Amino acid sequence: MTTTFPAMVISDENGSHRAALTQLSLADLPDNDVLVEISHSSLNYKDGLAITGKGRIARRLPMVAGIDLAGVVVESRVPDWQPGDRVIANGWGLSETEWGGFSRFQRLKAQHLTRLPAGFSALEAMAIGTAGYTAALCLLALEDHGTLSQPGEFLVTGAAGGVGTVAISLLAARGLSVIASTGRTSEETFLKSLGASGIIDRNTLSAPGKMLQAERWAGGVDSVGSHTLVNALAQTVYGGAFAACGLAGGADLPGSVMPHILRSVALLGVDSVLSPQPRRNRAWALLERDLNRNKLIALTTLAPMADLPKLAEEIVAGRIRGRTVIEIG
Ligand code: NDP
Fold this sequence. Notes:
This protein is of the alpha/beta class. The protein has helices spanning 45-52, 122-145, 162-173, 188-194, 226-234, 258-263, 277-290, 293-298, 308-316; strands at 4-13, 16-25, 34-43, 63-64, 68-76, 86-90, 105-108, 114-115, 153-156, 177-182, 198-201, 217-222, 236-244, 266-269, 300-304, 323-327. 29% of the residues lie in helices and 29% in strands. Helix 5 (226-234) links the parallel strand 12 and strand 13. The protein is globular and about 60 Å long.
């Protein structure tokens, strides 16, 4: 087996977090039950924050970055996982408290692994990655609330990003009318190819607005937060709902209770990191059923680990389109 291998390691440099490609050996890895050979990982907004140091994502150092991974079990001390099993891991504190996926090998806790759905290759699973799986969790939240059976338009904010692109594809797969809110109106053709029936400029949602506005949205998926989410809620029809998972536009929520108490609008919070295993399995089953593979490929770019520093800057600046898969193996 390979004696040393590259990993993106975050370490302390004069009180700041610094990321660098570093050679590790198996002896450096944590003493967890399952050794996985990683073939692919993916780039998420949180990875961008961790690698650029713009967010203190790692809560202990040194830390191997990467909140996603897909690979094959090489060794296991538990019966649930056997050599040759194809696995993925998303969240669970990877890159925060647990060493993550930007590494050729990783030792992981058995309970942090999910079986790779048979219908997906490792590359496809990472094209989905945390962003796509979070989009699926948002769909589940809307489905469980009964929103997806409501007539009307659905809004997806942060539309050209990782969560947004997959959310558009999944909503469109249900035959719903999807409006994409984006700052990149030049991406109209791309967003429509994913299934959006129209686009709006994100500036129309990003300024402070009235507490209640003309009703438009049956519901939607928001990865932007702040005034964008507040305006979306203020424009939601009676009984509608938004699934909110992100803060690309800000972590604040400067709104009012009016849409909630006068229109029974629901704000459904979605966390992917600690989502329990049965819900993860449901989200992956939904992706396996509804995500068009051609659309998945259309929204995916491949990159080597060496490109991570540059890509991290790009995703934090909101310049990454769709999903970026990192080839590890
Ligand atoms: P991306 O960077 O791929 O996409 C974010 C998109 O948001 C951008 O592409 C851009 O879309 C839009 N955006 C960026 N900056 C701004 C801004 N200042 N104002 C308004 N819109 C903006 O990130 P992801 O899709 O991977 O993640 C999106 C968000 O979801 C992040 O905040 C991330 O932390 C969060 N997240 C949360 C998870 C959870 O468990 N709750 C899991 C995964 C992600 P456009 O160019 O189309 O306008």
